[in-house]
Design a protein that fits this description.
heterodimer, A: alpha+beta, 33% helix, B: 138 residues, alpha+beta, Archease, Possible Chaperone, Chain: A, domain 1, 4-stranded antiparallel β-sheet, globular
């Protein structure tokens, strides 16, 4: 294939390897999954980052990237790395600034034709869910509430009446990381988190109305709670300024730790510390607390959506059940098979989604036979997908798959080449209403600046890192 | 002095040039504020002091921009001016940031910056001027 970069070895129809030696100091190879159609979008910088991760102490098996691989900072976006708990390290560069950025999907009993006054619904959602830079929460949280959010995650919101018990079953890890230690979260991070609970944020974060327009796996779709022709709501956001500050703080802490432990790094953004060190444990405690904040945040937004649908369509909370909630920027302690043995490892997923297969521990009884629901958002004009996790993913990628489409055009390039007003009009002609603070933010996130979500998901399905369950077509979106 | 946006697929990468290290840091803060907010016009009504010391000048830049980002978000302030003194050894920055409270009618519509990245962070001195490259996660 002429378009693939030099030094990359093809090892399968959709599988590629960066041999040890691609950059100095690699301990294991790099491995990524990509179709020929997507190969032209691969940047040299993303490959270098994939190789850099392979130099980190205690990395197991290989440094991995999913078909939405692209150039980020630290780990590539789409990157997955699992680390031995004794020899290995934990790095904020493998999680990112937006800790537990993630996606959740709610189903509704409404068919598209029953969604009367769609433009008004979008407008109401835009008013109900604060979006964009500088947005503040209408909630008045106290420090005790914030501490509970950090320690208890989504269950804080459910106990506060902002959800139902079943919501927790439908969150990855029940919407809570037990490793959370709010005492490791700085005052600065708390100060940023206090006014932002229940806000969507900006950039690629969104709240989208969708229609389930094709079901590929009826049994799994029924178990997950989605039905062809029905309206669904997708929420994409993370831990807001609180998570951003935790990452900022701990890069500083771990920069010093990297020197103290004599770890040689090819990129300072990969600052890290042994998992079993005071600095490593502190970062894990703070990162888990920020992850919990994000789950609570998505739960608060869910409540705002349910209230609005209640007022407009007379629906109850139970009429808008949670299909699932997944994180795609996180480091978690999980058991996986490595070189024929079961091992506890710390799996970093940076722009990658957990995709546990059938029978995996922690899945609720009604899902365990199907595998974990995996939600892959598209962009404003392209479909999103619901998949199910697989045994193949458990064996090959530490139970991980892609997280989205992945950008192919820079934001500045998008603004130069595309007029936000034209993008908005083109989407409107396709039946998609977009509400955003300004046209520039629409241009930045236009469908054409992303890889084809359909092609990314096709690779995932073909390789077996997830199996298609349903396709969701966007009909309205609010963006920050 | 100049602020130039460089190509980066996912995030925002800038090259900033200035005749002195102090002016370079002030320009870098301006690049950050221009990203976050649609407009920096308007009177300066508030100021905040800055006093930081770091291991090396790249760390100092990371710490400085992270602090500007924190102050802006936590205190809801849009900074449009910076009077700074940067010393190379030990690497330190002191001075004041000037600005005004965030007003959605004037400032909304910028791009949220999640953090300042160490990836490819560099400060160089050549031909009698200073130049830095920095990536903002957006």
């Amino acid at each position: 294939m002429s378009e693939m970069k030099d030094g990359v070895v093809r090892t399968g129809p959709f599988e590629w390897e960066l041999p040890v030696g691609y950059v100095p100091g690699m301990r294991v190879p790099g491995r990524f999954f990509l179709s020929e159609a997507l190969a032209g979008t691969l940047e040299e910088g993303a490959l270098r980052q994939l190789a850099n991760v392979a130099t980190l102490p205690g990395i197991r098996c290989c440094s991995l990237a999913m078909p939405d691989i692209h150039w980020g900072y630290g780990f590539p976006i789409g990157g997955v790395g699992a680390f031995d708990l004794t020899e290995g390290v934990v790095s904020p560069g493998g999680v990112g600034f937006d800790i537990n950025c993630g996606v959740r999907l709610l189903s509704t009993p409404l068919r598209e034709a029953e969604l009367r006054g769609k433009a008004e619904v979008i407008e109401d959602l835009y008013r109900a869910v604060p979006t964009g830079v500088g947005a503040r929460s209408p909630q008045r949280l106290g420090k005790a509430d914030l501490k509970s959010m950090l320690e208890d995650g989504a269950s804080w919101a459910v106990e506060a009446g902002l959800g139902v018990e079943r919501d927790l079953d439908r969150c990855e890890g029940n919407g809570r990381m037990n490793e959370a230690d709010s005492s490791k979260v700085s005052d600065k991070a708390l100060q940023r988190g206090l006014p932002q609970s229940g806000t969507l944020g900006a950039g690629n974060h969104f709240l989208e109305l969708q229609v389930v327009d094709e079901v590929y796996d009826p049994a799994a779709a029924a178990a997950f709670g989605v039905e062809e022709g029905h309206v669904a709501v997708m929420i994409h956001c993370g831990s807001r300024g609180l998570g951003h500050q935790v990452c900022t703080d701990y890069i500083q802490v771990l920069e010093a730790a990297t020197r103290r432990y004599g770890i040689a790094l090819p990129d300072r953004q990969l600052a890290c510390a042994p998992i079993d060190s005071p600095e490593g444990r502190a970062y894990v405690g703070a990162m888990a607390a920020a992850a919990n904040y994000a789950w609570a945040n998505r739960q608060v937004i869910t409540h705002q959506v349910r209230q609005l649908f209640g007022q407009r369509f007379g629906l109850s909370e139970g009429d808008l059940p949670l299909v699932y909630d997944v994180a795609h920027n996180i480091a978690k302690f999980e058991e996986h098979e490595v070189a024929g043995r079961r091992e506890q490892v710390c799996v970093h997923r940076k722009g990658a989604t957990r995709a546990f297969g059938p029978g995996a521990p922690g899945l609720p009884a009604d899902l365990v036979g199907h595998g974990q629901p995996v939600i892959i958002p598209g962009s404003m004009g392209t479909p999103s997908f619901l998949l199910r996790g697989t045994e193949e993913a458990m064996c090959r990628t530490f139970g991980s798959t892609c997280h989205g489409a992945g950008r192919v055009m820079s934001r500045s390039g998008a603004k130069k080449q595309l007029a936000g007003r034209d993008v908005r009009e083109a989407l409107r002609r396709d039946g998609i209403i977009v509400r955003a603070p300004n046209d520039a933010s629409i241009a930045e996130e236009a469908p054409s600046v992303y890889k084809s979500s359909t092609e990314v998901v096709r690779v995932v399905h073909e390789v077996g890192l997830g199996r298609l369950v349903a396709r969701l077509r966007p009909i309205g979106v609010i963006k920050g | 002095m100049s602020i130039e946006e460089l190509e980066h697929t996912a995030d925002l990468r800038f090259r900033v040039r200035a005749p002195t290290l102090s002016a370079l840091f002030a320009e870098a803060a301006r690049a950050l504020m221009q990203t976050l907010y649609a407009d920096l016009q308007g009177p300066v009504t508030e100021s905040r002091s800055i006093e930081l010391e770091s291991e090396d000048r790249e760390s100092l830049l990371y710490d400085f921009l992270s602090e500007v980002l924190f102050l802006s978000e936590a205190e809801n302030l849009v900074f449009s001016a910076a009077e700074l003194t940067v010393t190379p050894s030990p690497p330190s920055v002191t001075g004041r940031l000037g600005g005004r409270p965030f007003d959605p009618a004037v400032h909304a519509g910028g791009t949220e910056v999640k953090g300042i990245s160490y990836s490819d962070l560099a400060i160089r001195e050549a031909g009698g001027e200073f130049c830095l490259e920095v990536l903002f996660d957006v």
